[in-house]
Every structure is written in C-alpha cells, then in structure tokens.
Amino acid sequence: MAKVVISGTGVFTPPYSVSNAELVETFNTYVRKHNEDNADAIARGEAEPMVESNADFIVKASGIEARYVMNKSGIVDPDIMAPRLRQRSNDEPSILAEMSVDAAQKALKRANKTAADIDAVLVACSNLERPYPAIAVEVQELLGIEGFGFDMNVACSSATFAIQTAYDMLRSGSVDCVLIVDPEICSGHLNFRDRDSHFIFGDVCTAIIMEREETCTAKGAWEILGTRLLTKFSNNIRNNFGFLNRATPEGIGAKDKLFVQEGRKVFKEVVPMVSQLILEHMADEGLDPKDLKRMWLHQANKNMNDFIGRKVLGRDPEPGEQPNILQEYANTSSAGSIIAFSKFSEDLKEGDLGLICSFGAGYSAGNVLVRKRA
Ligand code: CO8
C-alpha cells in the first residue's frame, strides 16, 4: 500500500482576542441587569436569580485564558452577547471560505505545493454556514483548484475523520494531493449567556495538505502510520440547530438551538473512551506508547488532556510531550489538535513518533499516528 504523508499545515488566527476577564465582565453585567429586571419575580420565588461567572474558575476548570474571535464588539456587549458578522452578498467570498483560503495558502507554502497540485478539497468542521453550494467547492474556486470538493461534519473530530478520508483516497490512488480545511466559527453557536459554557469556545481555521510519499518535496513531512475512528451516540453534547427549525412552533429562538452540554458527564465518559482507543490502536499497529515523542490532543480541557496523557503514558506527561494551545485559543472544535500539531511539531527529529487525537460531540474520536520524515 502506498505511503501517505502530511506535508504541510497552516493556521488562520482571527484578528480579535477576548480574555476571560473581558468575557466575565460582560456576563456579570448582563447577570446584574437580569436580576434587577426580575427582582420582583425573584423575591416572590417565581424566578431564580442568575449567578455571576468567575475568571479564576474558568482557568482552573478548563485551562482556558483567552480565545480568538471573528467579531469581538458584539460578544463583549452585554446587550448583544453574540458575534455580529456582516451578511455578505453571494458575489463575495463567504466568511468560512475566506478563512479557509488564508489557512490553505500557509499550508501549501509549507508543503512546497501550489493550488495546481491539489485535486480534492475537504472542508471539515462543526458549523457550516450554509447547506449548499458546499464551502469546499467555493474554496476550490477561490484557489483555482481543478477536481472536486465536499463538506463534512463530525463536530470536534471533523479534521481527523477528514484525514482518514484523504488517507484512504490517496492510498487507493483516486486522488494525488488533498487539501483539508477546518474553518471553525464556534462563537456563532455559543450561548454567551450560559454560565456553564460561555467561556468554552473560540474561532480559528486550520489547513492540512496530504499526498503520497513519492510526490512529497517538503522537508520534515509526517508519514501517516495508521488512523482509527470511533463514534458512540451520546446526547451529552448537542446542538439542535437545523433546517427543520423553521417548521417547529419554537422556531430557531430556543436555547437548544445553540451548543449545550453536560460537561462533567462528557469529561467522565470521554477520557476512558479516548485513552482506550489510543492504547488499542497503538497495540494493533505494533507500537509502544512509551515511544511516543508527542501527542497533539483535542483542545477542550487541560485537565482532560492531563488524564488522557497519564493513562496513555502510564506516568505524568513531561512538559512539551502534549502541548496545549487552549490557554490562548480555547476550544476550537475540530481545529484544536491541528493547531497544536502545526505549532509544535517542527522541532521533532526524523523518526520521531507522534499522535494526533480528537474527541468530542457524537461522541466521536479520531487517532492519526505519524512518524517524522527527513
Ligand atoms: N463561573 C464560576 N463558577 C462556575 C461557572 C462559571 N462560569 N460555571 C460553573 N461553575 C460552578 C458550578 O456552579 C459548580 O458549583 P457547585 O460545585 O457549587 O455546584 C462548580 O463550578 C463546578 O461545576 P462543573 O462541575 O460544571 O465544572 P467542571 O469542573 O466540570 O468544569 C467544564 C466544567 C469546563 C465544562 C468541564 O466539565 C469540561 O471541560 N468538560 C468537558 C467538556 C468537553 O470536552 N466538551 C466537548 C465539547 S466540544 C465539541 O464536541 C464540539 C462541539 C461542536 C462545536 C460547537 C461550537 C459552539
């Protein structure tokens, strides 16, 4: 079977950063006003007072210190508390396509490739801004790529599922070079008025170039040794936004049309599921977790990553063995492990073994075992 490599990656980082302190200030202003406006009902016991958020809690519970967003003014305005993005005309690039093109150009440069080398585009992310035409086809058009493109969504595991899809296509010979992009505007589907989750997500876009070994001219590419995907149905992370919302009496205004989760249950159920997936996958590939030089784990929660690292390695991970980027980017869904991989992989040496691993809604989890080339 042909060997397949990841020959380049790229990251588009949005222009605005929002600190925990800024987010909490907005949230608490909203809470105080809400409680004042509802003081009588609260006094009568007919309504519960809202409770303020806390920046120290956020860092302790998640490791998140800030997040990048495509629009800041709306998010930090207590009267809006949502991103405000201009409606673009059909003649302009859509916002997800624009982010994708930026990340793709960076990945192409690192892979030593041009758009003419690509023959398939996969847009893999949690939230697509429209059902059709596919964002991937628009990215293809904007970059001048021949061939085909399609969109796919497996929530936080979209990127790793796309890597396996591309891996299979490249090994079968149906394509020669694939561009994967993961444009995530998570702020668009985050309820900034929900104390339990208002701090969780940020926006970003990552890109990956994959090809067969024989066409790769980039230095320090990563050979894919194997992939493994897993899904198991769970309602603990859910978003009921969809095309049938307008057909229901509640419409699109209901709270469950945004991101909702049972965070503690997710934590408890996903940590063992992912640890087991990694250990079984490595055993089946004849690889020892002790030989892993680095793990680029899904970026949802620092404590969760520490648990998984300990289970997989059988000891506390050393600093740098599983770099986190969530302190700066927060949870960026499918893009998180790819940001970590893109930013913290160049220093490794030829022959070093690494693991990209995603996990999230579905539940879904995806492993990509990689070895550094010369
Ligand atoms: N400020 C202060 N205190 C708070 C806050 C807050 N903001 N929120 C909760 N608390 C309090 C609670 O009231 C509670 O108090 P008490 O003990 O008195 O009842 C206490 O803190 C502890 O609450 P929790 O048990 O809820 O807190 P945790 O320690 O569990 O931390 C987390 C909460 C951070 C959410 C944690 O459970 C977690 O990270 N879980 C894993 C979540 C995860 O990985 N989710 C993946 C979702 S992402 C995904 O799959 C992609 C979806 C697609 C993207 C959609 C884009 C929007």
TrEMBL record:
Alphabetical UniProt keywords: Acyltransferase, Transferase
Recorded GO MF terms: 3-oxoacyl-[acyl-carrier-protein] synthase activity
Domain Beta-ketoacyl-[acyl-carrier-protein] synthase III C-terminal: 283-371
Beta-ketoacyl-[acyl-carrier-protein] synthase III N-terminal domain: residues covered: 150-218
Residues passing through the membrane, by range: none
Gene Ontology annotations of biological process type: fatty acid biosynthetic process; secondary metabolite biosynthetic process
CDD domains cross-referenced by the UniProt entry: KAS_III
EC number: 2.3.1.41
Pfam families, per the entry: ACP_syn_III, ACP_syn_III_C
PANTHER family named in the record: 3-OXOACYL-[ACYL-CARRIER-PROTEIN] SYNTHASE 3, BETA-KETOACYL-[ACYL-CARRIER-PROTEIN] SYNTHASE III
Record-given protein name: Beta-ketoacyl-acyl-carrier-protein synthase I
